[in-house]
Amino acid sequence: MSITIDKLTLKEYPEELQPRERLDKYGVRALSDRELIAILLTTGSTKKTALEIAEQVLTRHNGLRGILDISLEELSSFDGIGIAKASRIISAVEIGKRISLKGQEFKPTIKSPEDVANLLMEKMRYLDREHFKVILLNTKGQVIKCETISIGTLNSSLVHPRELFKIAIRRSAASIILVHNHPSGDTSPSREDIQVTKKIMEAGKLLDIKVLDHIIIGDKSFLSLKEKALI
Fold it and tell me: 53 and 14 in contact (C-beta within 8 Å)?
């Protein structure tokens, strides 16, 4: 017995065929290529479901790689895919391309306190308030991101390990380096600098995120708490 499908929406599929339900239940990585495209399509045509149309697109173009450079005109020519749906798919593909290119950008590698100073000295030496930053590193010691955690007063900054590690976890950092400036230009660490660093290091041990160093930036000078054996 055949069943005629009249523009079935994804919500009307049996639960085991609902990509959005499966995404919610199992996560996006559990979805097949055709399910991802079907979610973008949302609905099918009078003759085919969104999953069937997605399968047709992938088959004709030999998988996801084949649709990387598909034109709007070519994609919208499929039965059940108009300009609106084709635009949505092409936009999603373009987002993926741009994310991929971002991942290929140069990532400086930190091997010493000098590398940190070279990276941040000119950005921090003239600041008139203490800025507390964290450099997030991957397993190769490459910089993932440099984030400002807090901005303090003329001679102090406030930082809580919770806020710092929230960022590190979100960015999947393997290790971190703490950095803050002294507007006075004097890189001598305060007792608070040392205490805060040790507190953050203890928190890092619990989270398995190593705190490699704490660098203090002055005026054309810097100090490593690790090199001075202060941590």
Answer: no
